[in-house]
Design goal:
With 196 residues, the protein is of the alpha+beta class. The protein has a domain of 122 residues: NADH Oxidase, CATH 3.40.109. Helix content is 40%, strand content 14%. Strands 1-2-4-3 form a 4-stranded antiparallel beta sheet. The longest helix has 21 residues. The structure holds flavin mononucleotide. Flavin mononucleotide binds next to strand 3.
């Protein structure tokens, strides 16, 4: 396999990190890889908020768990259907969130990717950018996890410290660190191709 394909196959969502910090040169490489992503009409709509303060990351993580639990348990039936979560998944997720740090998993770096909220292709552009960051990280010996639940950070009491304008939408967080686990490979669904 060539190196790119190998990296694609080796990337996993990693949810346990060791204490090693990430130096600025590596972070710059990751952000520059993100910037190389394609974007609709070449708008490059992403913005990066890089959080490295351990205590702040942990405090946000704890608070987002609480917010997420409330949101999930208060979700009305049609919203739950939209989330495509069965009651089994709902209770599993709620239980998971109740234990320790299940949002940012003690990662040393959290990159929030935002775009303007009214950017038509913002979610897709941010996703492409995120994937570039995650593959670049893997190729450099780092691990990552994309975290959608980070969207609730805008309800946290210290959110103002991030100076994220309310015109922006938090599309995704990418956790970055040196992984301390070897997650299983989830089998990929393969009956999803239609040849015409
Ligand atoms: C848009 C998006 C949101 C995600 N949100 C979360 C999350 O909030 N918490 C989490 O632990 N993992 C999250 N994940 C990671 C997925 O659970 C993970 O990618 C999936 O289980 C496949 O595993 P793999 O990445 O190791 O192949 C998210 C992934 C994506 C693409």
């Amino acid at each position: 396999m060539n190196e790119v394909i190998k990296t694609i196959y080796e990337r996993r969502a990693v949810r346990k990190y060791n204490d090693l910090k990430i130096n600025q040169d590596l972070l710059d490489l990751l952000l520059n890889a993100g910037r190389m992503a394609p974007s609709a009409m070449n708008k490059q709509p992403w913005k990066f908020y890089v959080i490295t303060d351990e205590q702040l990351i942990h405090a946000f993580s704890k608070e987002i768990s609480e917010i997420a639990i409330k949101e999930i348990s208060h979700a009305k039936k049609d919203e739950v259907d939209k989330l495509n979560l069965s009651s089994y998944h709902m209770s599993t997720m709620t239980n998971l969130l109740k234990n320790t740090d299940h949002i940012f998993y003690h990662a040393p770096v959290v990159i929030l990717i935002t775009t303007l909220a009214d950017e038509e292709w913002g979610g897709i552009d941010a996703g492409m950018c995120a994937q570039n960051i995650m593959l670049a990280a893997k190729s450099l010996g780092l691990d990552t996890c994309p975290v959608g639940l980070a969207k609730y950070i805008n309800q946290a009491k210290d959110f103002y410290e991030l100076n994220i304008p309310d015109t922006e939408k938090i599309q995704l967080a990418i956790l970055v660190g040196y992984g301390d686990e070897d997650p299983i490979l989830h089998e990929r669904i393969e009956d999803n191709v239609v040849y015409i």
